[in-house]
Design brief:
CATH architecture: 3-Layer(aba) Sandwich
Number of domains: 1
CATH topology: Rossmann fold
Order of helices and strands: EEEHEHEHEHHHHHEHEHH
CATH superfamily: Alpha/Beta hydrolase fold, catalytic domain
Number of strands: 8
Distance between the termini: 22 Å
Strand content: 15-25%
Radius of gyration: 18 Å
Number of helices: 11
Strand order of the largest sheet: 1-2-4-3-5-6-7-8
Oligomer: single chain
């Protein structure tokens, strides 16, 4: 593993390379979730890929982790186009702009789809892992999942969400139960705990792009639609999601229906962190897809 930084107009983007970019095999770049999470959460996926001899790259999106933080920027600074530009500069910096695959998880999945829609010449394959799609649908589905919980959790969760009082103890109990059911159904491994800890230190990107909580988008992604442009994605695409995922079947069917030839695998025992909840299956299916199409 090697670490590096890409210096550009907005600061530095930190990245790690697992394996050898010069191996001759198509590398995969992995976009983390959030918005505002860190690449720690994706290192386990990079290890899965690198174990086969294929190089994998994780990076902290600008404003996150070890990359430059820009806390003084106004909310409207934080746009999808900003992160697309950062990605384009990164693959150029790494010398792989003519040959790479792309995997995105959660928000990173939406970012990956938006990148694929621009049809970069070097993009050879796409993996959408529990991806965010249209944000209005995400909010509707998240509320549905919340209402399906026992009333002792659903009532205070929805009431406090609607009132904006998410700093109460009863809300904390209710949202923790939501996360237990729909974010990660096993004890969180070290990579996830580290990402949570690191992202908690600076909520600038999350607040600007998404908002105050998982269930309610009040930031720049409010009303964002990607489903009307998915036919512009023309590379082999693999979709992964969990049966209990906050990225629900309705969300993932949007991608399946919109991307010609896409394949979709549901992990029956998983929520949002399929890659650690059913690690062996995820590793096997991810590498099988990459080996088949690259």
């Amino acid at each position: 593993m090697t670490t590096g930084t890409m210096k550009w107009a907005l600061g530095e983007t930190a990245y790690e390379v697992f394996g050898e970019i010069t191996s001759g095999r198509t590398p995969i770049v992995i976009a983390h979730g959030g918005p505002g999470f860190t690449s720690h959460s994706m290192k386990v996926v990079a290890h899965y890929v690198a174990a086969t001899g294929r190089p994998a790259i994780v990076y902290d999106q600008i404003g996150c982790g070890d990359s430059t933080h820009l806390q003084s920027k106004p909310q409207d600074f934080w746009t999808i186009q900003l992160f697309i530009e950062e990605f384009s500069r990164l693959v150029e910096h790494l010398g792989i702009s003519e040959n790479f695959a792309l995997l995105g998880h959660s928000w990173g999945g939406l970012l990956a789809a938006e990148i694929a829609i621009t049809r970069p010449t070097g993009l050879k394959a796409l993996v959408l892992s529990s991806a965010l799609a249209d944000t209005d649908m995400w909010e509707v589905e998240a509320r549905r999942l919340a209402l399906e919980m026992p009333e002792e959790f659903s009532e205070p969760l929805i009431r406090n969400e609607d009132a904006g009082t998410i700093d109460t103890d009863e809300y904390a109990v209710a949202i923790t139960e939501f996360y237990r059911r729909h974010l990660c159904r096993i004890p969180a491994p070290p990579e996830i705990l580290t990402a949570i800890e690191e992202s908690g230190k600076d909520q600038t990107v999350y607040s600007a792009m998404w908002g105050h909580s998982e269930l309610s988008c009040t930031g720049n992604l409010k009303h964002h639609v990607v489903s009307n442009r998915l036919d512009q994605i023309v590379v082999p695409t693999q979709i992964f999601s969990g049966r209990h995922d906050e990225s629900t079947p309705a969300t993932n069917k949007t991608y399946l229906d919109g991307i010609e030839g896409a394949q979709w695998e549901i992990f029956e025992e998983s929520a949002h962190m399929t890659y650690v909840e059913e690690a062996a299956k995820y590793q096997r299916l991810l590498n099988a897809f990459l080996d088949r199409v690259l």
